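Researcher: I'd like a structural prediction for the single chain below. Treat it as a standalone chain; there are no partners to consider.
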Amino acid sequence: MELTEAKQHIAEQWNQWSVSYDKQYAHGLKSCVESEAWKKVLALTLGNKPRRVLDVGTGTGFLALLLAELGHHCTGLDISCKMLEQAKMKGARFGDRLVFDFGDAEALPLPDSCMDVVVNRHLLWTLPDPQKALAEWLRVLKPGGRIIVINGVWGSIGVWAKAKRLIGNIMIMLAERRNPWKDGYSNEVTKQLPLYGDVPPEEILKLMQETGIGDLHMVPMRLVEQTENAAMPVRYRIAYSHRRYIIAGKKT
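Model: Treating it as a single chain, here is the predicted structure.
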């Protein structure tokens, strides 16, 4: 599969971040308590019956690994080969119940109606055509299958939130002697990403409705937020006063 120039740039960025991604707060798991909080939320959303799950934009396998621990059969796809290397190393213990492979979220290398569930975490913001991706996820779902989108507002909506983000980033810069504003895509790429930055849940709900996804509802993530915040130093709690949300729907 040949990637566009923008996607090649995106893949290369994630290749560079692959080794350090799990070490970042609110990215990788920092404790057993945090892991259990995530599994409780996922079990609430998916139920207890083993399902065939596709994790789109799997990265280092965060969701796929948790779902495999819950007994599901998972396939994780990503366009970053280095992120996939990390995921494969962590997922080897699950054997053929957990598979990681290269795949574009907007052009899935899968047949129609082959999955019970499609999940993703922090993905829509980094896609050039999120509505095309949602349509692809619907395509590979069986009738009645579920789509689960995990996203968040990361502290950049509203004057007070932006002020806290600035203060927190200054504290990070002083404590860690690095520039927290430096990491990220080029301006040329961000202009091609319609959901880049903080996205309120209402915007994602509207997009999912327009794509034809039914039975949409929100799933609370307060338990996850609490455990993540507890693991963060004060400077990160100030900079990233994040509010996560899950939007779940069905292929009707």
